[in-house]
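User: My instructor asked us to take a sequence, write out its structure as tokens, and then describe one feature of it. I'm not sure where to start. Here is the sequence I was given:
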Amino acid sequence: MMTAFAFVFGVMPMLFATGAGAGSRLSLGTAVVYGMAINAVIGTLFVPNFWEFFRHIQEKYLSKVFTSSDGKPGVSQTPPTESEPPAATTDNSTRKPTP
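Assistant: Let's start with the prediction itself. The structure tokens for your sequence are:
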């Protein structure tokens, strides 16, 4: 919010432009100032609501889809069986250099 309002107040002199080219600066200033002000207010009001909506969707629907074999939500933490190879690691610190 502080960044949006700092930007709005920084562009505010364009709303009060006079002299040569004042018409274009006035129209540009009006669009920028009111656009950013409305964007800041709408973003503040709607982003938390969308966050809650997607959290609700995740809890209600996705927790059923991604249930582990033991019935708890989340990824199964069971170790791989002998038929399954262990997961590959991306840690290169334990690799020996090839000659």
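For the description part of your assignment, you could build on this observation: The chain has a mean pLDDT of 76. Try explaining in your own words what that tells you about the chain.
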